Structure prediction request, 231 residues.
Amino acid sequence: DAGVTQSPTHLIKTRGQQVTLRCSPKSGHDTVSWYQQALGQGPQFIFQYYEEEERQRGNFPDRFSGHQYPNYSSELNVNALLLGDSALYLCASSLARGQRNLNTEAFFGQGTRLTVV
Amino acid sequence: QKEVEQNSGPLSVPEGAIASLNCTYSDQGSQSFFWYRQYSGKSPELIMFIYSNGDKEDGRFTAQLNKASQYVSLLIRDSQPSDSATYLCAVNKGYGGATNKLIFGTGTLLAVQP
Prediction:
């Protein structure tokens, strides 16, 4: 049973460029969330996709966008890269369980280390 | 005030001792809470979740939740050098049919001394 997989594992981009990161959720999961983790900080929620729609969004600019496919895999796109976008980007998958969402668990992929130069 | 606060540490404990990691949160309406372990350069790994007041035990780990005081803690019994990592506390702010908008603290670095 494959866990959450992300690609690529490492990436170096130049300021102003665009990047696409990819995530395949754990088998049986239907919800994908993206997080950004800067060095020495906890992960920060970017947004979440469920049923191919963005459902919740954190405090990130519109340069950050995403997509979810019918097979539940997801992409994170970042336009006009800034030096400050250098971070570990984490994808987490989980299973939606109705309205209360009390004891759902999110599992993380290995992350993509993005360096902007 | 941050939504989730943790002491950044490092917390140093001798091998075999109990390590106690603490976390406070600001939103009284928070329902579920998670502890993740993160080794340097790796992604977070789920240890436990808790949503009812009291204790929840899983092997050497015990999560404790006190909603009245708005704190969550993680106890690690018989600490091993392999437990040395950053421990992240997270609060679930998800709503509706989607799940798990996790708000993380900055993490506590635990160092278990052999």
